[in-house]
UniProtKB/TrEMBL annotation:
CDD domains: NAT_SF. One of its GO terms (molecular function) is acyltransferase activity, transferring groups other than amino-acyl groups. It comes from Nocardioides albus. This is Putative N-formylglutamate amidohydrolase/GNAT superfamily N-acetyltransferase. Keywords: Acyltransferase, Hydrolase, Transferase. The keyword Transmembrane does not apply. Residues 16-157 form the N-acetyltransferase domain. SUPFAM superfamilies: Acyl-CoA N-acyltransferases (Nat), Zn-dependent exopeptidases. It comes from the Bacteria.
C-alpha cells in the first residue's frame, strides 16, 4: 500500500495544527534518542513559524490525523534548509516522507534557492536513501549531542547533472551485489524539458514504469543479512536513460522505442524525440558513467572476494502494459531472470528454495528474462554470477517483509 492508495491530504501548517505537529516531531525524537532525549531542549517545534521566520511547514494528514511534516527554512545566501522532517511510525514506508520532501523541494525552487540542505542521523539509512533518491549529495559528517549526523545538499541552480547512482557499501568479505536500477522517479530539470508529456501524464507514466519500493526492499534485505551485501542503486528514473539496456542494435526493446534512451511511453505514445546530439548527451552524461561505475565496483569486489553474485531487483505489474514484447507470457508472483552463462543451477535452486517460504508461484524468464552483468564481464567471466528477481507488484505491496527475509536467506547461502 502506498500513500497514493490512501486518503492523504497535504497542506500548509495551520495554527490549529501546531500542537499536533509538535507532538509528532517530539514522538519521532523520542524514538530516535530514547531516554537521552530532553524535550525542553527543542522549543522550536512548538512554534515553527516564529522559530524559522519566512519558513513554510507542510503537514500530511491521514484520516484527520497529522502523520507527517517537514519545514523549509530560509537561510542567508539563497540557501534553503529542511528541518523537523518527521513521519508517524505506523505510516512509514508508504511514501509520505517522499511526498512532503517533494513539496518542499518544489517550494525551494519557486523561491529561487540556489541549494537546499538537510541533515539526518548517520544511522538512519532509510532517510539517507530518501534524500539520495531526490539527488541530495552527502557532503560531510558532524557530531551532534547524541550521535553522528550527516549533512546533505541538493544544488538547485547552476549545478550540472544530478548524480545518477549511489554505491551503498557492504561488508568487506561480501560476494553479493544488489542492483536496483528502476526504483527512482527523479528526472533532472534539463532532461524533463525534453520530455513532451504534461506533468500529469508524466506522473502517470512514472507510476507505470517505476519499480516502486524495490530500493526499500534492497535496503531491508541488506539490514537483515549477517554479512551485509553491497548495493548499487540508480537514483534517477529510467526515463532519463535505462542503464540495463544494451547500447547497440542488439537491444530488442529498440523495436518499441525503449532502448537506452526511451522515445516511447508504456502506452506506445511519444515520450520525446531527441536529436542525435541530444541522445548522445544523455548517453554520455548518464548511461556511460553509470555502466563504468558498476563495472568498476564488480572488478573491485572480484579482487577483494574472488567472486560476485549480482542480484538484479525489479518489480512488474499484474497486467501487461502495451509496450511489453512478451505481454502474453505467464505473470507469476515471482519471476527469476536467468542467463545460461552467468546463472548456475545451484544459484537457481537456492533462489527457489528461499522464495518457497513466500510463494510457490515462481517461474523462470517470464514475463521478463535475463539478468544484468557488466558488459566487460558479460559471457566472459564465470566468476560473476547473476540472477534477476522480478516481483509482481501486488505481492511486493502485500508481503515486503516476507520477501526481504526470503532474499536475505538466499544471500546467506551464497
Amino acid at each position: 500500500m502506498t500513500a497514493s492508495d490512501r486518503q492523504i491530504s497535504l497542506s500548509v501548517l495551520r495554527d490549529v495544527e501546531r500542537r499536533d505537529v509538535a507532538d509528532l516531531i517530539i514522538a519521532g525524537l523520542r524514538e530516535r534518542y530514547g531516554v537521552a532525549f530532553d524535550a525542553t531542549l527543542n522549543p522550536d517545534v512548538y512554534d515553527l513559524p516564529d522559530s524559522y521566520p519566512g519558513s513554510l511547514t507542510v503537514v500530511a494528514r491521514l484520516g484527520g490525523d497529522v502523520v507527517a511534516t517537514g519545514t523549509l527554512a530560509a537561510r542567508p545566501g539563497g540557501v534553503g534548509e529542511i528541518v523537523r522532517m518527521s513521519t508517524a511510525a505506523h505510516t512509514r514506508r508508504i511514501g509520505l516522507a517522499g511526498q512532503v520532501l517533494d513539496h518542499l523541494i518544489d517550494e525551494a525552487r519557486r523561491r529561487d534557492c540556489r541549494e537546499l540542505r538537510v541533515s539526518t542521523t548517520s544511522t538512519w539509512t532509510s532517510a539517507r536513501a530518501l534524500y539520495a533518491s531526490r539527488g541530495f549529495e552527502e557532503i560531510g559528517l558532524f557530531q551532534d549531542t547524541h550521535e553522528t549526523d550527516v549533512r546533505c545538499v541538493l544544488p538547485l541552480s547552476g549545478s550540472g547533472p544530478v548524480r545518477s547512482f549511489e554505491i551503498v557499501p557492504g561488508a568487506p568479505g561480501s560476494t553479493v551485489l544488489l542492483h536496483v536500477p528502476h526504483a527512482s522517479r527523479v528526472i533532472p530539470a534539463d532532461v524533463r524539458s525534453g520530455i513532451g508529456l504534461s506533468d500529469a501524464d508524466l506522473d502517470r507514466e512514472l507510476t507505470a514504469i517505476t519499480d516502486a519500493d524495490t530500493d526499500l526492499l534492497a535496503e531491508r534485505v541488506a539490514d537483515l543479512c549477517g554479512v551485509r551485501p553491497w548495493a548499487f542503486v540508480n537514483r534517477l528514473s529510467r526515463l532519463v536513460v535505462d542503464p540495463e539496456r544494451f547500447p547497440d542494435e542488439t537491444e530488442e526493446m529498440n523495436a518499441v522505442g525503449m532502448g537506452v534512451v526511451y522515445e516511447a511511453t508504456t502506452q506506445r505514445g511519444v515520450l520525446r524525440q531527441p536529436s542525435p546530439a541530444e541522445r548522445r548527451t544523455l548517453v554520455q552524461t548518464y548511461f556511460e558513467p553509470y555502466a563504468a561505475a558498476l563495472a568498476e565496483l564488480v572488478t573491485k569486489r572480484l579482487a577483494s572476494a574472488g567472486r560476485v553474485t549480482v542480484i538484479d531487483v525489479h518489480s512488474y505489474p499484474a497486467s501487461a502494459l502495451p509496450y511489453e514484447l512478451h505481454g502474453n507470457s505467464p505473470r507469476p508472483e515471482v519471476c527469476l531472470g536467468t542467463d545460461d552463462f552467468h546463472t548456475p543451477e545451484l544459484l537457481l535452486d537456492r533462489a527457489r528454495s528461499a522464495l518457497a517460504a513466500v510463494t510457490g508461484d515462481v517461474t523462470l524468464d517470464s514475463p521478463f528474462s535475463g539478468c544484468y552483468v557488466p558488459l566487460d564481464r558479460y559471457r566472459r567471466d564465470s566468476a560473476v554470477e547473476a540472477i534477476m528477481l522480478e516481483i509482481r507488484r501486488d505481492l511486493l505491496a502485500s508481503r515486503p517483509d516476507d520477501l526481504a527475509c526470503a532474499t536475505a536467506r538466499l544471500i546467506e547461502t551464497l
